[in-house]
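Input set for joint prediction.
Command: fold jointly, output C-alpha cells.
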Amino acid sequence: MDLKDKLVASFMAFEGGVDLDHPVHEIRSEAMKVFEAQGFPEKRDEEWKYTSLKALLQNDFSVFPKQNDCLDYKNVKQYFLHEIDTYKIVFVDGAYSSFLSETTHQGIDVCLMSAALSKPKYLPMIEEYFNKIAPKDESLTALNTAFSKEGAFIYIPKNVAADKPVEIIHFATGNEAAVMLQPRSMIVVDQGAELQILERHRSLTSNAVLTNSVTEIYAQANAQVDYYKVQNDNLTASLIDNTYIAQGRDSQVSVHTFSFGGKLTRNNLHFYQKGENANSILKGVTIIGEKQHVDHHTLVHHGVPNCESHQDYKGIFDESATGVFNGKIMVQDIAQKTNAFQQNNNILLSDKATINTKPQLEIFADDVKCSHGCTIGQLDQDALFYLQSRGIPQKEAKALLLYAFANNVLESVQIPLVKQRINRIIAQKLGVQIGFDL
Amino acid sequence: MAYTEEELKKELETKEYAYGFYTDIESDTFPKGLSEEIVVAISRKKEEPQWMTDWRLEAYRAWQQMEEPEWANVHYTKPNFQDISYYSAPNKKPKYNSIDEVDPELLDTFKRLGISLDEQKKLAGVAVDFVMDSVSVATTFKKTLAEKGIIFCSISEAIKEHPELVRQYLGSVVPQKDNYYAALNSAVFSDGSFCYIPKGVRCPMELSTYFRINQAGTGQFERTLVVADQGSYVSYLEGCTAPSRDENQLHAAVVELIALDDAEIKYSTVQNWFPGDKEGRGGVYNFVTKRGIAHHRAKISWTQVETGSAVTWKYPSCVLKGDDSVGEFYSIAVTNNHQQADTGTKMIHLGRNTRSTIISKGISAGKSQNSYRGLVQIGARAEGARNFSQCDSLLMGNQCGAHTFPYIEAQNKSAQIEHEATTSKIGEDQIFYCNQRGIDTESAIALIVNGFSKEVLNKLPMEFAVEAQKLLEISLEGSVG
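C-alpha cells >
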C-alpha cells in the first residue's frame, strides 16, 4: 500500500480519537478530500519542479507513532537554549512532553493545540483563526490539516510583550523504522504585542523521519514577531515546513531560516500582508553538503498599499548537495507604493552540487519599487590569496570568507544567544575551530 | 490650455492600426482543415521530394499525439485547427524576372508598408526576400549574394535546389517533436527563408524578409533556416506587419539558426502584427519557436522588438554547445490594451567558457500582461560559464501586469551567474523635469521610454532602429503619464 492510500485509510482510525462534533472536524474532512483528490505533489507540478518526494515516499512511514516519553533531559540538553530562560513546548514523536516543557497561562498563553481544540474558552479563537490563511488547495497542507491534533498554540494578548522567548522543539526518537509527524501550530500575536520564537526539529535516530509541519501566524496591528527556524537535523530526517503568516497594519514579522542539514528540507514560507505599512522580513542561510537537499519556496503577497518586504537568502552548497530557491513577490493592483526587495546569492563549492533558482515577480500595480537579484558564483580568489598571504590557512580563510558571505543574514538575529549558536554550527559545518563572534 | 493626460489617452485609444489594410489579390487557397491528405497536398503543391513529405508526415503524426501547452502566462481562446486553411499563395505564378511584371496591387502594398521593392533596391545593401502570405514573390540582390556563394532563397526553393543542406540541418535544432506548435509547423509549413553562408564569408549586406499575413483565415507557418558555415558572419532581419482583422489569426513559425565553428549570426526581429483593437477583439496569435545552436567560438545574437500580436508566446534560445561560444538576447516587449506577451529566452550552456547576456525590457500599459520567462542552464561540464541577465519592467497604469519568471539552474561550481530584475513606473519627477524644460508630457514619455529601451535599440541594425523607435512611440505614447 503506498503512503497516500495508507494515510487515506488511517483517517478513519484518526477520527476515532478526536471530537467529531468540534467545528474543526469539518475542516479536517474537507482537507482530507483535497488530499485524496490531489495526492502527493509530483515533479510535473510547477511548484515541485526541482524537488522530488518520490524516493522519500517509498518509506513505509508509521502514521501514528508509538509514544515514548522516557527522554532524559541531559541527553537532549544541547538542543535547548539552556543558558537563558525560555518557555518551552516540546514534542517527542509527535506527543507533548510535559516533563521537558515549560508552558504558561499567566498573562499569555503558551500551550498546546490539543488544549486549544478541546477547551471551550479557546473555541472563539479557533473559529476565528484556524486554517484561515493556510491555502486550502495545497495537498500537503491539506494533509496536515486533516490530521491536525497536536502542536503549539500561543496567544499573546493586546499590548503584551512576551517576557521570554518561546522554544518549540520536535524530537523523534526512532522507536519505529520510519515515522511521519504532522505537527500543527497556531500563533496569534494581538495588537501591539511582541513575541520571539525559536523552532527546531531534531531526530535522535538514524531511522527515517518525515515531518510535514504547518504553522499559522497572525500578527495583528502593530505586532512584532521574530521567528527563528533552526534546521540542523541528521541525514535520515526530512522536513516539509509550511509557515503561513498574516500581517495587520504596521506590524513587523521576520522569519530567519537556518538550513544546515536533513535529507530533504522544503520550506514553504508565505506572507500575506493585510494591513498598510506592514513589513515582512524573510532571511535564510543554507549551508549543506553530502546529498542533502534544501528547497526554499517563499511568497510575499502584497495586498494593501504602502507595505514593505525584504528577502535575503544565502546558500553555500558542497559535495552533491542540491539547493532550490523559488521566491515570489506578488503585488496586487491596489498595493501601490509597495517596496519589495529580494536577493538570493549562492556559492557552489563542488562540481556535483546543483542550484536551481527561480526568483519571480508578479506585479499588477504601477507605483511600486520591486527588484530582485540573484547570483551564483565562487569565492573571490584574490581575497583568499590575501588572507593566505597573511598566514591564515586556506581552510580557515575559506571559512572566514563564507562566513562573511552569510553574515548579512546573521546580523539581524535579535537574540544574541541564538546568534552564537548559529555561529558555532556554521563553524562546525565549515569544519573549522574558529569562533566567528570575535 | 495644457494637453492633459486624459486627452492623450483618448487620442491614443482611437489611434487606428496604421498598417491595417487588406490587399485583394486572387489567392490559391486550400480548403480549411488539417489531415494527412492536406499535409501530403501541401508537399505535392510545393513539388517536394519524398523524404520531405515523409518528414512532414512524421511531424504531423507526432503533433496528433501532443497536447496544446497551457503553462504560459497567457489566456486566449484556443485556435480551432480544423478551421484554418493551411495553404495560401498569391496565384500569379510563375516568378517574375523584373519588378514590372509584379501585380501592381502587390507593389502598392509594399509601398504602403514603406518598403517598396524599387526603393529597397536603391537602399544601401538590403536584400529582401518578400513573403506575401506564404510564397516568396520576389527576391532581390540575389546575384550579388550568389557571387559570394551565399544562398538566400525561399525554403521551398532550397528543398528543391539544395536538398543536401536542408536535409542535414532542417529540424536539427528544433526537432519536429520539440513542442506542439513546432510539430504543427513542421507538418504544414508552406514557406519561409533559407540562408547559407559559406566558410569564411562575411555577408556584405543585411539579409531581410518581411512577413505578412494577408488572406483571411490563413495561418502563417513560416520556416526559417539559417546556416552560417565556419568563420562566416551574417546579420538577418525579420520584420512584420499584418492587416486588421476581427478573427484571430495564428502564426506558428519556427526559426533555426546554426552557427558552426567561429561563425556569427545576428538575428533581429521587429514584430508589429495586429494587436487587436482596444477592446481586445481580434489580433494575431504569435506562437513561435526560435532556437540557435552555437558551435566552438560561435556567436548567436537575438534582438527583438515585440510590439504587436494579441498573444505572444516566444522564447528565442541559444544552445551554447561549443567551447567559448557566446549567446546574446536583447528584447523589448511592449504590450498595450488587451495584449498578452510571455516571452524570454533560454541559454543552455554546454561547452566550456560559454558566455551569455540577457537584456530584457518589458513595457506594459492599458490592460495588458507582460511576462518575462527565461532559463539559464549551466551543464555539469560547462566550466567557467558566465551569464548576466537583466530584466526591467515598466508599468503604466494599474490595470496592467508585469511578471518575471527566471529559471536558473547551475550544475557547475565555476559558473558565474548574475540575474537582476526591477519593476518601476515612469517617475513623476522625471516627467516634471521634462515639463519644466518645455517638453510636453507626451514627448517626455517617449523620451523616457526610449531611454529605458536604449540598451536594446542600440543593438538593432540601423534600418531597424529607426522603424523600431517609431513603433515604440505608436504603441506606447501616453498610455499613462
